[in-house]
Amino acid sequence: MIALLIRDLRLATRAGGGFGLGVAFFLILSALVPFGVGPDRATLAPVAPGILWVGALLACLLSLDRIFALDHEDGSLDLLATAPLPLEAAVAIKALAHWITTGLPLVVSAPLFGILLQLPVQAMPWLVASLALGTPALSMLGAFGAAITVGLRRGGLLLSLLVLPLYIPTLIFGAEITRRGAEGMATATPLMFLAGITLGVLALIPFAAAAALRVNLR
Amino acid sequence: MTLLTVQDLAVARGGLRTVEGVTFDLEAGQALILRGPNGVGKTTLLRTVAGLQAPVAGRIAMPEDCLAYAAHADGLKPALTAAENLTFWAQVFGGGGTDAALAAMDLTALAHRPAAALSAGQKRRLGLARLLVTGRPLWVLDEPTVSLDAASVARFAEVLGAHLGQGGAALIATHIDLGLPQARVLDLTPFRARPGSAPATRASGFNEAFA
């Protein structure tokens, strides 16, 4: 399992691996919004939590189709399915690798982009906390969508349509945590909900994704 | 020791039966070569034996953790070097002997080249070297000699012979003669599914995903 994680991370950081793509997209979005909406604090600060979260979501979506499609094209998915590693574990590891290469850089760099969007300083810890809690669910749900669309050429659009509705609860509670943090309100309730969603997704989705993969490999 | 028993097996591709009534078994040290015209169902049969799809009818039995499958695609990552590709599969299968496998397929000099820079034949040799590092006794090979030159085919036959000599077994779909004296040949043409032996039309509500 460690071998698969190391291989995926190594592939992501080599040429053409797409590491940093998500952060670059996040940067572009956060840099452009002030131009579109106007740079003053009164207009930007209220929408900042929502924009940051939507940006994180779309950045995550960018690299989803790579999770299984590349392995399917070069035949390694067939070989992985016949390897002693359970397919459920392979799904979980590949989602983890996706999170490390996409979600984790977003979590780390989010405060910087928060500054671009005039997010109040007291909201920064909540932004980081909500992204740290929420993005693992985004990667795992994305792995599920990628498993469903694995055999399709140009399945990226279908993947987005399948996955985005599943992202909505995470988006709602994640943005709510940040908004409440910015206004100095209590954040415990949305934090609990977000954590619950993420834990449920992490526990159940590997099985669903592995089942979808088995069907698609036939 | 019997490594693989196949009884009265029928397999289907796209919901339609390709071959049916196939029965054979493989003891340690034996090789079975599947022949038959294109589309008769050799690949489908091998994928079924490898567990990638369920048989329509019949039984497949083998000891646990004994099979290594090599498909048309080699499963190589172009961005990784030959040695890294092989080491990954060795770790996944809990096997070892990466250097020996590279040497056996004459790839030692290319070990640190990225797989993207290898030729088609070299990639195939690397894909076959993967079988050696799995440590599995039963090899299921789908057209293993595609894009290999004559010398490489002879080298692969040597490796295969050594594997059989060590108590391994192999199930191979191929069109060429590998020069293995101990190999039996099974022609799949007589087992081609006859229309009428199975429902010719799909039942209404047929869905391959839930077949």
From TrEMBL, chain A:
Gene Ontology terms for molecular function: heme transmembrane transporter activity
Membrane-traversing stretches: 12-37, 43-64, 96-117, 123-150, 157-178, 190-213
Localization, UniProt: Cell inner membrane
Keywords on record: Cell inner membrane, Cell membrane, Cytochrome c-type biogenesis, Membrane, Transmembrane, Transmembrane helix, Transport
UniProt-listed GO biological process terms: cytochrome c biosynthetic process; cytochrome complex assembly
PANTHER family: CYTOCHROME C BIOGENESIS B-RELATED (PTHR30070:SF1), HEME EXPORTER PROTEIN B (PTHR30070)
Family indicated by similarity: Belongs to the CcmB/CycW/HelB family.
Task performed by this protein: Required for the export of heme to the periplasm for the biogenesis of c-type cytochromes.
Protein name: Heme exporter protein B
Organism, as annotated: Paracoccus gahaiensis
UniProtKB/TrEMBL annotation, chain B:
One GO BP: cytochrome complex assembly
Domain ABC transporter per the UniProt entry, residue ranges: 4-207
Pfam family, one: ABC_tran
InterPro entries in alphabetical order: AAA+_ATPase, ABC_transporter-like_ATP-bd, ABC_transporter-like_CS, ABC_transptr_haem_export_CcmA, P-loop_NTPase
A single MF term (Gene Ontology): ATP binding
Keyword Amino-acid biosynthesis tagged: no
Name of the gene: ccmA
This protein's name: Heme ABC exporter ATP-binding protein CcmA
